[in-house]
Q: What sequence folds into this?
């Protein structure tokens, strides 16, 4: 249950001019993780950050630059981008930052070190023809391994060109 003080702070932040969430301290903390190509990334960069906010509110985060391979949602969750194959075997160092954060009272940015691993003898197959925008179930890619069986079902599209190659 919220205390009266917490309720007062929330009302003050919401209704009094000149007070904003940017004036409350945030401490972004560096992260380090290992990801496997083809497997979902279950990690949120904000989970270990200190958000000294009087109400349950999550400010948005974003990468500070345009980075390949790993995407960052506004809520802090990570996901593979379609070009993730180029980062296999690499150690990536990305930086994220909280939106509307005041650097004079907060640590608004943090580094994320990501080791990108590939399952031996496996590759990601991009499924660009089948990506449905804004669909959670839309396949981005499939993990295919040497000497293992795989069946892919797809609706044939006469406007698409299909090229299969095995290296």
A:
């Amino acid at each position: 249950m919220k205390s009266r003080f917490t309720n007062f702070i929330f009302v003050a932040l919401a209704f009094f001019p000149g007070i904003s969430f940017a004036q409350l301290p945030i401490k972004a903390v560096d992260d380090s993780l290992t990801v496997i190509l083809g497997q979902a990334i279950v990690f949120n960069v904000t989970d270990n950050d200190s958000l000294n906010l009087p109400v349950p509110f999550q400010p948005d985060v974003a990468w500070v630059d345009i980075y390949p391979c790993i995407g960052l949602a506004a809520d802090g969750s990570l996901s593979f981008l379609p070009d993730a194959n180029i980062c296999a075997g690499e150690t990536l160092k990305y930086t994220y930052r909280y939106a509307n954060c005041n650097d004079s009272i907060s640590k608004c940015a943090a580094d994320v070190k990501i080791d990108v691993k590939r399952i031996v003898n496996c590759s990601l197959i991009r499924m660009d023809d089948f990506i449905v925008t804004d669909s959670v179930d839309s396949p981005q890619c499939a993990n295919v391994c040497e000497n293992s069986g795989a069946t892919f079902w797809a609706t044939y599209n006469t406007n698409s060109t299909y090229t299969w190659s095995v290296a």
